[in-house]
Amino acid sequence: MRRPPMSSLFLCLWLVERSHCSSSLQDSMEELHSRLAVSLYQTLTETENHSNLIVSPVSVSTSLGLLQLGARGNTLAQLQETLGYDVNDAHVQQVLLRSQGAVGNTSQGVLLRQTCTLFVESGVQLLTEFIQRAAAWTNASVVRTNVSQDSLGGSPEGAGNTPNDSWRLQAGGSSGELSGSGEAQSETLWGNRRLQMALVNTVAFRGVWQKQFLFTNTLNLPFVLSDGSAIKVPMMYQATEVSFGQFRTASDQRYTVLELPYSGRSLSLQVVLPSERKTPLSSLESQLTARQLASWAAGLRRTKMDIFLPRFRMQNKFNLRSALPAMGISDAFNPTAAEFSGMSVKESLYVSDVFHEVRIDVTEEGTKAAAATAIVLLKRSRSPVFKADRPFLFLLRQMNTGSILFMGRVMNPADQAP
Length: 418
Hints:
CATH topology of the largest domain: Antithrombin, Chain I, domain 2
Radius of gyration: 22 Å
Strand content: 25-35%
Order of helices and strands: EHEHHHEHEHEEEEEEEHHEEHEHEEE
């Protein structure tokens, strides 16, 4: 049975009652989205140490953009500064709507879908104008529900005692349930605060390679970890023509970029690898800029290569309530400073938590078999070799817009997600 590469995520913004505690524009927007992606990724690398990491910039930016519709004053100004644009601007909305429409497209072998839902406590009164604008911009739906302590996987006190306690949101007590983990919490997660609303953005992707790797060519080969030790991992192989380029950072550090398209060539996985084996991936991560990411499209050339890429699967769960203030969004999290009067006049709301979960599974997309012939093929080939046998970055992007759907790094392919 075929199992395609798959990645999915959900992002929740919990809001609680304060009393209880054009083409040129298109190009500019693409650069701003890339800037947010790099900033978010680099902020997370400061706390995630040397582990595997994946994040979805498109999910975060969509959710923050939706918050802009209801924000006012300095809260709105900080959101605008971090995103680099104002979603209330008609021209900006046009560009964003086109981009979001592309996210909803599907083609043979590829499914990409984004949804946005507002789960609102039954007694909370949202402004009709905000609901209408949210629906028009992100096709967001509003679900009246009981966002109570009972539907969050236990009492507030219990949620704070164990970092791995789960949280969950049940829509109206039905079987439709969104579940995740509050494992980033080391203190009482809910306290005595009354939850009012949860904004949930989801992005789901499933795709098959334009040219699939064959299980018959997969071998257990060495992968050198950041500490210099080596482990054996399933290394996929194929000889094919790909888009490949060599680049330099501002400090003259060399690195290579390989682009593997998915079926239909609307989406691709870009693999970024330092050219020198002794160069740590962290050195490249710290020097990445949005302008560099934009330069890859013009610098990639079609090349026949021998490709070695480890099979990998990962999952990340974290709370962005520390990362976003570090990026400039602080008032939204402050009970006394947050201003979301454009969302609700009667309810004084602020952002309590930002939960983000991402999963990805990259495989050969083929049937398992016992034979392995990659070494023989490599010996017979005189083509250049791209061998991701040490830590590397990856970006899953829309090829026509350059939009970054997922961005992450593989430090240890054997460190599999559950």
